[in-house]
What does this fold into?
Amino acid sequence: MRARELRYTWHWDMPAPPQRVWPLVCDTNSFNQAVGVGPWTFTETPDPLGGSIREGASQSLGGKITWDEKPFHWVEGREFSVLRVFHRGPFLKVVSHLELEPTETGSVLTYSIEASPRSFPWSILARYYLGVYTHRHFSRVFRHVAKYLAGGAEVAYQQSAPRLSRGALDRLRNAEASLVQAGFGRSMAERLTHYIQKASDDVCHRVKPYALADSWGESREAVLRLCLHATRLGILGLTWDVMCPLCRGVKDQVPSLGKLQQQAHCSSCNIQFDANFDRLVEITFAPSRQIRPVEVASYCVGGPCNTPHIVMQKALAQGESSTFSIELADGLYRLRGPRMSASALLEVSPLHPAPGEITRFSCSRREVSPKRIEIAPGATSIGLQNSGEDELLVMLEKMRWPDDAVTAAQVTALQDFRDLFSSEVLAPEEQFQIEYLAFMFTDVRSSTALYRQKGDAPAFALVRDHFQVLREWIVKHRGAVVKTMGDAVMAVFQEPADAVAAGLNIHRAFNAESARHLGLVLKIGVHAGPCIAVNLDGRLDYFGTTVNTAVRLESYSLGNDVVVDSGLLNDPVVRDVLAWPGVHTERLSVQLKGFEESLEICHITWTGPGGGERDGDFGERGN
It folds into this structure.
């Protein structure tokens, strides 16, 4: 006898608008864990047309259950749904759907389940499992989420941390004292050790220092430095995470730079890609296994929270149309799909006109039309039409990457990292692209004459002391010394404004009354742009045209100036540095050695009084 389809619909009131509720309820991994579903395992098989086919498996109802996991459908802030087609077990298929609707006091959450029992005998168990067991546990979890939104709970999903051994607690206390002795505030050190003890596994298995700093209200750089020092003390471990450029998920994790490989593969998106240092390699932390082992299981891998940059995802059958409403903030969005070789851009800006009745796109495997649409921010209706011959999964994604990730390019340009992890280098055969870094080269003017006048030993002592002054200002401006070469220094910075500000402050320090005994005049060149990171003589180093240009610019320095490519003056933060009183610029065209075209360069000088005669430093800004 064929069993009737089952349908259950439940409602819960939430004391917050949909925008606040959505990030919590779309976290299907945490939700499933909280209600007692799973853990699940997933396998991904490449789809010849693009993307992958996902199959799930779990132990449930006394046996192993497997199913085809169809792609989630969702519209950010409004709804999501998923279809699971089962190979065995009590169900043929189950469709889950969540929807949020605003109310005067917050929002109402509606959850519905449609299930097809495999047979009539199975329907009896299915009715109890869905109608009683599932409803009871969903109610428990959603009521707790509502309590959290109302300020009555510390976390949205209750998950406990393991009890630590006495030895682990002693190590944490000793490390905490060492962090305080290293210059970190006691409250920050205590906060970290408390986090290591109390945070649940699913939270602390991949700690992002910038995100942690934001939640603490602390400086991002300070918390990153804290995590690096805690790693050296053995209470944290770090990994290098390789991210897919499309789904932005973690595709590989290695414990050291030397194990990173330039070529990477995403089984979910079915693509091969180069892991550049700017976006696709991140550094994250987790409690050291000697302190507490962290065990993480999968409870869902396809939900909206797993790819938060995708604001809409919808599968369209051949010839199918779909229209949905969505609230879009300023920014650039891309319409694409794993089976689509073409894409389209949607630019949202207050400068653009309000959208019409419906913003429409026609999609196929090889073409998307129109290629670009410009609209104002706010609520809009988007229409999709599958005009091709294959089923398509269509996504609308934010092009902007989140800024709370610590990338390999950033951390390797930090002096603390180079000091604490000097043995961290790439494998000799690997080289990684970096889209943008700033480089500074310095040299002592007339150093040969200096050695002849003062003698080798006194001159060397001056040069050695001047390295300390350089390092002080480079570190103060968020840079790192890559290497010294005779009297010269090569340094790296994340931002060119920091390099320019450091250069001006270095000159000011050497011209100050307290530093005149050094008797040195420095030449400084700064340039920014793409480069490659390599292993050179057991050290993390950089090569490329940007580095070569910075070297050439330093050679045009007259001393007591910072020489840059004049194009760098277009950087708004560099312009802020140059707006300081007493800063002067002079442009001229030169022919750099080894370059065919001429280049306009700029000499940046400061003609103000010596150090200590005005408050602040060049380029002084918060982290």
In short: Residues 443 and 486 are 9 Å apart (CA to CA). The chain is about 30% helix and 35% strand. The radius of gyration is 29 Å. Confidence is low (pLDDT under 50) at residues 610-615.
